[in-house]
Amino acid sequence: MTDRTSESLSRFVDGESGSPAVARRHIIQGAAWSVPVIMFATTTPAFAASTTPVDLSFDKSSYSASGCSSISGVKITAMSNKVAKAGVSVSVSLPQGYAFSTGSTTYSGVSDTNGVVALPAISTPGAGGTVVLTAVAAATASTSSAQASANAAVTPNVVAAVANSSSSGSAVSGVASDSQPLGGGYFLASDGSLYNQSTVVASGVLSAKVYTSPSATFVSYNTNSGGSRLSGSTVAESYSGVPTNATSVGADYYLTTGGDLYYKGSKVASGVQSAAGSYRNSHYAADYIDGNGQLFILYEGVQQGSAISFPSESNVAVKPLGSGFFLTGSGASITRTPSSPRVCTAPSFRAGTTKTKCATSTTLRV
Predict the structure, then answer these.
(1) Domain ranges for the chain
(2) Taking the model in full, what pTM does it have?
(3) Which of 16, 33, 162, 255 is 20 to 30 A distant from 206 in Cα terms?
(4) pLDDT tens across 131-186, in order?
(5) Can you tell which superkingdom this protein's organism belongs to (predicted)?
(6) Where does residue 135 rank: exposed (0-12), middle (13-18), buried (19+ CB within 10 A)?
(7) What letter does residue 50 receive in the DSSP assignment?
């Protein structure tokens, strides 16, 4: 019995005959085969081997130009394994302030037989600065995605000009490029220089407001030492007592951040929400709104008549515009009944007389 048992075991292990040895070999081979099949299916898509790598590059690492001009001749090249790649779709989006000669801020093109995409001329903003241009090629079934970038350095080229009713006017030299136009040929630079066209007429200016009379243009401004009124390039009057946290609203009136309204150097109202100065009826006038939403008119700092209540139907804060006009808001929604709303554009009134232009809407509900 011992010999027969040994022989049976030997035959089973060595596989000389019988099905058990065959089954063992099949199991071993099946296990070895199943491992790479699983790994392949979980690590790499079947089509990956056919994807062609793509690289993009600008013809320059940096471009330069002045403001209000253009950058021309920008080219992007698509390569695959260091060989020019045709038929690659490339897109470029420009930063704010820049535009292609087509007027658009985006451009898409397909690389030619040399792998090149030529961009239209790029218009530059007058303010200048350095930005990054970026080109992108999206991945396709046969090519990989790619991206490239280059700098564009633009020298500021802001020109001040005074226009008139019949033309765009002529350039004014010498005005700082960061100046803001105030109207009437006045410009205020960030360093506090106040220009009357090309002439600096005041320095250290904190705020300034231009207003007119029937025969002249004025500007009220304040500095750390007080306030002044200019006519042309001549200081017509100066006065002390204007707080440094006040902003000129015109006609020698100044409004502080705390809501105090000053006429020249004297406080004439408190709790003021907004104000606007003007010269009318031979008076230096101010229109302002208090915290209760009531409207007041001042001549030389003295209240004229009683407070004015704006239309109760308005649901937008009223803004004084000067010269007795108040704006209740552009596009304000106003309703008398829930089923009949009205949309009003720039409703305004002067001295309590309502002037409102409304369009009936059947879809808007307030």
Answers:
(1) 2-43, 55-155, 206-309, 310-366
(2) 0.54
(3) 162
(4) 999 999 999 988 899 999 999 999 887 677 666 666 667 777 888 878 889 988 89
(5) Bacteria
(6) buried
(7) G
